[in-house]
Write a structure and sequence with these properties.
422 residues, six-stranded mixed sheet
């Protein structure tokens, strides 16, 4: 009954809030999305490092790892396909034979059923490249997982393949230099002596992500100075990014005790597990220092042999106190929501409790999250609930793409990382 309630609640959320959620996600230009409410805990990362970006280098013995759970016990075996994309994650016109060797469609054959969990699920894993898929072109890719029709995927995940053809001078400026109490500034100069760049304004594209996702409503850098073998973006007025605040977090690794920021952990009469988190307040003008995971999570469960198949799914109860409702919709946001506005993480305002509330399933582990506000036009306000501070630690990834007049796709020729906390 508990599981049926959660499924019905999620489907209701999809029905009621899909329009606003889809509008905001489209405006944001995010590459990841989950359409199927039965799919949970999707992670795509490099190698065995769950905190690493899903980027591998062409020509090296590197691989990507995909993990996810399917709570639909009656589903047939899932399949996957790869689609090559532009720098802005739009499918380009390449044929599969131009960017990969192998089969365009494959089955996900590596799966294990959960063991001793109150809510049953099937855990899937996949490595790319593999014996069926070898990648030939650099750039962006969409990994689509589906049941029978690739045009109706259960979820989509983006990853990239890099050919290292550039170096960069990269600096991050804080409030002491910029004079801004909220914004962080990136100074960037790209060295490309081995590339025949004839028109840097047209052939080079720079895309910036903060903590693994692109911030909506922020313009992308354009060149301010060009010379042979070097393009400078340092003085661009587009290199400013809101610092935000550190992510909130909670710990559900131990089902017998309340972990950090968990007010109460309990089971109902049927054995289903609940985690009531400590009630949160809007931070507004207060900066909170904490060493976070920049929005990510780590699946883990005490006293288990295999955390991926033995960890329990917990009904996690979020509460955000507010004397009156905000002007817009409130969402929980982080890797647990696929770094998108997910309908299953849309909060409801309880007038009697004067608080926003949300009950949703998350797997046992350590989690980061934050609250975001979305107006009626789908624009995201990062600052209304969490506040914005230049001293916040953020991880930036700067992607450099090159497409000459003779190229048929955007090549990823550089990836550079920097943290505002270092």
């Amino acid at each position: 009954m508990h599981r049926l309630f959660c499924i019905c609640f999620t489907l209701l959320c999809v029905s009621v809030y899909a329009q606003n959620e889809n509008a905001a996600n489209k405006l944001a230009g995010w590459k990841d999305v989950c359409y199927d409410p039965q799919i949970h805990s999707i992670q795509l990362f490099k190698g065995d490092n769950e905190q690493a970006l899903p980027v591998i280098t062409a020509g090296l013995d590197e691989f990507l790892t995909l993990r996810f759970d399917d709570l639909n016990s009656e589903r047939s075996t899932l399949r996957y396909t790869l689609v090559h994309c532009t720098a802005d994650w739009e499918p380009d016109n390449l044929f599969p034979t131009e960017y990969m060797n192998g089969f365009p469609e494959n089955y996900l054959n590596e799966y294990t059923h959960s063991y001793r969990s109150r809510i049953d699920y099937t855990h899937y894993e996949l490595q790319i490249p593999n014996e069926n898929v070898r990648l030939k072109a650099s750039g962006n890719y969409l990994l689509k997982v589906y049941e029978s029709d690739a045009a109706k995927p259960a979820f989509v995940r983006g990853f990239s393949v890099i050919e290292s053809r550039t170096t960069a001078a990269l600096h991050l400026r804080g409030p002491a230099v910029t004079g801004e109490n909220c914004l962080q500034q990136i100074e960037l100069a790209v060295n490309h002596p081995t590339l025949e760049v004839r028109n840097a304004f047209r052939e080079l594209k720079v895309r910036v992500e903060q903590n693994g996702y692109r911030l909506p409503d922020t313009a992308q850098p354009t060149p301010t100075f060009v010379e042979t073998g070097r393009t400078d973006y340092t003085l661009s007025d587009r290199n400013w990014y809101p610092g935000g605040n550190e992510f909130r977090f909670y710990d559900t690794r131990n089902l017998d005790f309340s972990g950090q920021n968990v007010q109460r952990m309990y089971r109902d009469s049927q054995g289903f597990v609940y985690a009531m988190l400590q009630a949160d307040d809007a931070r507004e003008s207060r900066y909170f220092f904490v060493r976070d995971m920049n929005g990510r999570y780590y699946v883990d469960a005490y006293r288990t042999g295999n955390r991926n198949t033995e960890a329990e799914y917990v009904t996690t109860i979020f509460t955000l106190r507010a004397n009156e409702p905000f002007e817009g919709d409130v969402y929980v946001f982080g890797e647990l929501t696929n770094f998108t506005l997910h309908p299953a993480f849309h909060m409801q305002y309880n007038e009697e409790q004067q608080a926003y509330e949300l009950n949703t399933l998350t797997k046992q582990g350590l989690y980061n999250y934050r609250y975001v506000l979305v107006d009626k036009k789908g624009h995201i306000d990062w600052n209304a609930i969490e506040g914005c501070f230049a001293e916040t630690e953020n991880a930036y990834a700067v992607y450099v793409y090159f497409r000459s007049a003779t190229d048929r796709y955007d090549r990823l020729v550089g990836l550079f990382s920097i943290s505002s906390g270092k």
